[in-house]
């Protein structure tokens, strides 16, 4: 990503494009919208919270400095888990703008839980949101992209989709599933002017941790991210997302040191990574992600 910032295409080239973003009311989705709006990209902002979407819309218009008007940012309150509504909402966007050029699948939830105590209902709920709703909305978008002969599918995965993360077994599984689904789609669409980009951010400052699943049905982790945590800002993540999108990269890993070197070590030198893991234990990887020792691991030791 570093070289693309210097030598790659600028997000300015996306001016006038129409981008459909899920989970746009906060966090990475919100700041990706801002990074695109700054360059005059027309937006469809979707999430469940209409009041927050309206706030993001007004900020997008302000950030655009006259490039976007009220009609250029469409707000669609939408629950991704309502699979039957996907086609209706996407067609609404197509009717409004005449087209959609890029779909950004951003919505999802994380998890903090012990693998061996996670209830199966949690696995199913997390996969419904992080995987199956994403797959279904993408298939809806592909109908439009196939018809017009071009399109771009973008999915916010995670470094956890590249390297396994401790104390997030279901979340990690869902992101690995996303990688598999969309790497397969990319191969199928080669030569058809339909691109697939996987965005894989590392630890980022958002409200994701408070909303994260645990191992119990209906329970939230409810632990806020701390200002002292070592994380990438959501603004920086949004800017890097915009660069990856305009350059149509296959997969983008984003994060701070030491998370990025650890990821490269895990992928390109797996034997060394495995040895380091055996020596350091899961606590090291948990601390890299959450900037502290895992309470889950400590609780397990005390039992």
Span of the ends, CA to CA: 44 Å
- Biggest sheet, strands in spatial order? 3-2-1-4-5-6-9
Question: Largest sheet, if any?
Answer: 7 strands, parallel
Q: Total strand count, please?
A: 9
| Uncertain runs | 299-303
Query: Architecture, CATH level 2?
Result: 3-Layer(aba) Sandwich
Order of helices and strands: HEHEHEHEHEHEEHEHEHHHH
pLDDT averaged residue by residue: 93
How would you describe the shape?
globular
**Radius of gyration, in angstroms, nearest whole number:** 19 Å
User: What fraction strand?
Assistant: 5-15%
Helix content: 40-55%
Characterize the structure shown:
Keywords: Membrane, Oxidoreductase, Transmembrane, Transmembrane helix. Mean pLDDT is 93; it is low at 299-303. The protein has helices spanning 2-7, 27-37, 50-63, 86-97, 120-148, 169-188, 208-211, 234-246, 259-268, 270-280, 282-290, 295-302; strands at 18-22, 42-47, 73-77, 102-105, 151-156, 194-201, 204-205, 232-233, 251-254. By secondary structure, the protein is of the alpha/beta class. The chain contains 12 helices and 9 strands. Strands 3-2-1-4-5-6-9 form a 7-stranded parallel sheet, with helices on both faces. The protein is globular and about 55 Å long. Strand 7, helix 7 (208-211) and strand 8 (232-233) form a beta-alpha-beta unit.
């Amino acid at each position: 990503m570093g070289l693309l910032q210097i030598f790659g295409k600028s997000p300015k080239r996306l001016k006038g494009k129409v981008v459909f973003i899920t989970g746009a009311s906060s966090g990475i989705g919100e700041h990706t919208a801002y990074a695109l709006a700054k360059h005059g990209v027309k937006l469809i902002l979707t999430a469940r919270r209409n009041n927050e979407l309206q706030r993001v819309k007004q900020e997008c218009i302000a950030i655009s400095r006259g490039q976007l008007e009220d009609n250029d940012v469409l707000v669609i309150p939408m629950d991704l888990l309502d699979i039957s509504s996907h086609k209706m909402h996407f067609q609404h966007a197509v009717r409004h703008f005449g087209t959609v050029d890029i779909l950004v699948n951003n919505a999802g939830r994380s998890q903090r839980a012990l693998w061996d105590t996670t209830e199966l209902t949690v696995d199913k709920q997390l996969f419904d949101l992080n995987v199956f709703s994403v797959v279904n909305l993408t298939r809806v978008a592909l109908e439009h992209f196939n018809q017009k002969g071009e399109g771009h599918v973008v999915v916010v995965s995670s470094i956890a989709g590249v390297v396994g993360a401790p104390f997030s077994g279901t979340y990690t599984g869902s992101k690995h599933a996303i990688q598999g689904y969309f790497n397969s789609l990319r191969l199928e669409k080669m030569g058809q002017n339909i691109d697939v980009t996987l965005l894989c951010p590392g630890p980022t400052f958002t409200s994701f941790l408070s909303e994260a699943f645990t191992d119990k049905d209906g329970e939230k982790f409810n632990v806020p991210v701390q200002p002292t945590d070592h994380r990438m800002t959501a603004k920086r993540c949004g800017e890097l997302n915009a660069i990856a999108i305009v350059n149509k990269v296959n997969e983008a890993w984003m994060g701070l040191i030491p998370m990025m070197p650890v990821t490269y070590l895990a992928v390109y030198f797996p034997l060394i990574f495995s040895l380091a893991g055996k020596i350091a234990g899961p606590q090291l990887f948990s601390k890299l992600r959450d900037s502290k020792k895992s309470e889950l691991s400590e609780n397990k030791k005390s039992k």
